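worker-03 picked up job from queue 'complexes'. Input manifest follows; two sequence lines, order preserved.
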Amino acid sequence: MHSDDPELREFLSHRRGALLRSAYLMCGDAHAAEDLVQSTLIKVVLASRGRRRIDHLDAYARRTLVNTFIASRRRLWNRERPHGELPDAAEPAGDADLGMAVRVALLRLAPRQRAVLVLRFFEDQSVQATAELLGVSEGTVKSQTARGLTVLRAALGDLVGSVVDGDLTEMHGVVR
Amino acid sequence: MTDYTVRELMDKALEGLLLPGEDITESVLAQASHRQRRRRSVAVAASAAGLATVAGLAVLLPQVANGATDRKPGPATLTAPPVAATHPTATRPAVDPASVVAGLLPAGSGRIVKIKDEPPTPAPPGTPAVTVWPTSRLAGTYLIVRNGRTAAVVIQSYDPKARPVQRSMGGDISGVCNETPATWNCKESNLPGGVQVIETTEPAGAWAQTAGVVSTVSVSYPDGRFISVDAMAGTGGLRDTSFGPGWATPPLDRAQLLAFTENPVWFR
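worker-03 finished. Artifact:
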């Protein structure tokens, strides 16, 4: 039996919930999110047992999570098909409807765009940190963010207005 | 009207998500141990299989090179290749996929090794679990090893007439270039006969952190057949294990990759 260090054990038991929330936003399905998180945690354990030292377990796990998610969607038989034209969105009547509407809207984004929005706005990562996590340029993160927000706004219809320009948008992605 | 930040909207999307109460720490550690043991046994088996593959290539390569395959890159073909045979795969003559791929790559590309397919991701809840993973006999991931460096080609194909029927992979690929960053150099072509071709070249770091430059050509035929080939300079992100340093460029340039992908051999 492998003797894993206490820091790793503590990470596994305490960070699963946070990873699961991000995974749920990306997958749009609780079961798929649990599978994604489990795969991610196994990869983290394997990496920590390998020769490479992991200085920041949380950042490593986050990177593994998004890359595993995007890689799984790259397989053609799992490829999602973003909608070319969005149907008219009905205004949600309550919070539960709003939550559902947001989940559906997120699923209309390409997987990488979804990952970018989750990292930027849910996990509050900077453009630079998001670019490093995804292994893409900062310009790509910015363009994917802009496209993702446009799709979100279109999908949520009258519920949200135009994206507010300026520093506030850059920091918090405010939609009206 | 209520103002929401994107974060607030995402928080709304999370409402109702029940976080599992059980601690899976021991389960994750045990699964990791299981996978480590499996990797070690596979590594031992692969050493023996590698020797057998090299011996097999030495016998089969001349046959492929003298066959109908063409090593030279050519212009896009304007007609669809013949449809798949409708006979059960068991009646087909045995063929070594790696030797077929080797015969289509430029001479001197290196040693070709087909690695084991990954299982598909779990089926969505409520749908039957897939225990058999039907796929084309030539589809898969092939390593190209030369001078201690490893590149790869990943071949995925779908033929609705194949038996057993393969899993659908989408079909309509029009408009894909609108979703890709400008840096991917995406080109969409509509060839006569309803054949659609998408070509992309992703810069290093876009496909995966350490995959290097990746070129992809996808061809969609009007009868539903679909073939996509990734030519990867490196192998980072393909599997959990490392296959060593990659090449400086993909093993095929775009013209070569297009000719490779359009070869009718994938649907025979």
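worker-03 released lock.
Chain B has one domain: 30-116+135-267.
The CA atoms of residues 67 and 103 of chain B lie 9 Å apart.
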